[in-house]
Amino acid sequence: MAALSQLVLVTAFLAAALLPLGMAATTYPIGSFCSESGMNYGDLNSSEAVVRRRSVNFVVSDLVAKARTGSGFATSRAGRGYDAFYGLAQCRGDVSGGDCDACLAQAAKQIVSNCNYTSDSRIWYEYCFMRYDNYNFLGEVDTREDASVTMRQWPDMDNPKAFQKAAGKAMGKATAQAVAVGSSGLGRAKEQYTPFVSVYALAQCTRDLSPPSCAQCLSAAVSKFDKACGSGPGCQIDYSSCWARYEIYPFYFPLATASRATIDMTKYTKQRTSWASPAVTLEACTWSS
Q1: How confident is the model at residue 288 (pLDDT cuts 50, 70, 90)?
Q2: What percent of the chain has pLDDT above 90?
Q3: Under 8 Å between Cβ of 163 and 210
Q4: What single string gives the DSSP state of each residue in 208-223?
Q5: Where are the domains of the chain?
Q6: Do domains 21-138 and 149-281 have the same CATH topology?
């Protein structure tokens, strides 16, 4: 009976997966963050506000243009000194170039309208992420809880311990792939839970991070799974510099092009001093006793 209920649950998820996901994943944000501190430059008419709005508009449009030719990743900067703004945009590494372009184009519009030119603005979609700030955050790990997205599926699986074990193995394998040199910060894995149900996991970091920094970010994300996800059939933790997600249906895709799978990260190898951290070397992540 338990296996039957799980099979019905999987069937429901697969039916949902057949909907036009590309449209939903590139059109509707799953979360956004607009800083409450600092100025809101959308409602001011001072010369400073005009300059800053111009910088933000340049950054978001530049990110879209650069990502189109940069395999779904881009950084940008505009302005000088106090008026400088920095930006980052990245698509999930497994989505097609067309879906990536559509997602970032929508993000560029929505991030400005949602946040009205606040100093620190971020927006998450299923397929992409965009951020701008007047602080140079590039290359830094960001795991702020108040600027993150947590999504959990219900109901709980019938055998919580067994499911969490399978999900932990899948997530551990995906994380290990993501932090490996030459991975572009992307990892995907599949683990069998029952003869009828598999767990699919994806882990990804923004490409401005070194492998050790990627490991640090993903370790923080996975450490939240016990409390945030329990034995839910799906869950994702999205920070501004990494994302971790698992589901009981195949939500990720083959890489669209070889180039997106082989971004050269050898420039980071000099920073690689030790990979002995359990968050990096374990093949299974556990979040329950």
Answers
A1: very low
A2: 65
A3: no
A4: TS-HHHHHHHHHHHHT
A5: 21-138, 149-281
A6: yes
Q: In this structure, are residues 120 and 35 in contact, taking their beta carbons and an 8 Å threshold?
A: yes
Q: Alpha carbon of 122 to those of 12, 156, 184, 240: distances in Å?
A: 32, 31, 22, 8
Q: Is the pLDDT confidence value at 110 over 50?
A: yes
Confidence of residue 70 (pLDDT cuts 50, 70, 90): confident
SS3 for 78-128 is: ECCHHHCEEEEEEECCCCCHHHHHHHHHHHHHHHHHHHCCECEEEEECCCE
Would you say 60 and 130 are in contact if contact means Cβ atoms under 8 Å apart? yes
Cβ neighbours of residue 44 under 8 Å, at least 6 residues apart?
none
The domain over range 21-138 is classified in CATH as 3.30.430.20: yes
**What's the CA angle centered on 272, arms 269 and 275, to 5 degrees?**
130
Mean pLDDT of 144-171: 94
CATH code for the domain defined by 149-281: 3.30.430.20
CA angle at 78 for the pair 146 and 120, rounded to the nearest 5°: 10
